[in-house]
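Figure 2 data, in text form.
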Amino acid sequence: MPHAGLELHDGERGLRLLFRETAAESGGLRLAMEWTVDPGRQTVGRPHVHAQGGSESFELLAGEAGYRVGKDEHRERAPHSWPIPPDTAHVHPWNVGQEQLRFTQTIVTDDPANGLTDGVGRYFETVFALSAQGKVDARGDITDFLQSAVTIRELLMPGSWLPTIPRPAQRALFGGLAALARARGRQAYVAAT
């Protein structure tokens, strides 16, 4: 389970993730993480949105990042920070420089019962654990379709969505695939070892 001080490494994808504060320490209200990204690498390559009731922000500590908010792509050097408004499509920072990129990512929710901070923390731990097994591609996508569906459905929804597909359709699609994944023995959360 994610907890403050847990540090995860992904040598294949050139990433390090340090949990600074998690749902366990904040009563479910906050998740704060520090990322280190090698040149040419990325954290989360898919555009997504977070529903109302939560906010997300990033702060560049070192290096140069590309990132997207809405339809606008940006390129900035540290120090620089930016918020992600609720229900705004965005892509997390990727390293466009020649040295390591370091940044913090903070998610705050006004409703700890929505599971947003806990789910996102467990999602990232799962991605690191599966990457160690060779089951995550360079973009950060889980390569086993059913594993991806159950992990996204149970750990990220209803706080996170794809921006281009209506939410009821996503609920139905991911719900059905997640049920099939569980029937075939897959679990949403995979602990890092």
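Caption note: DSSP finds four helices and eleven strands in the chain.
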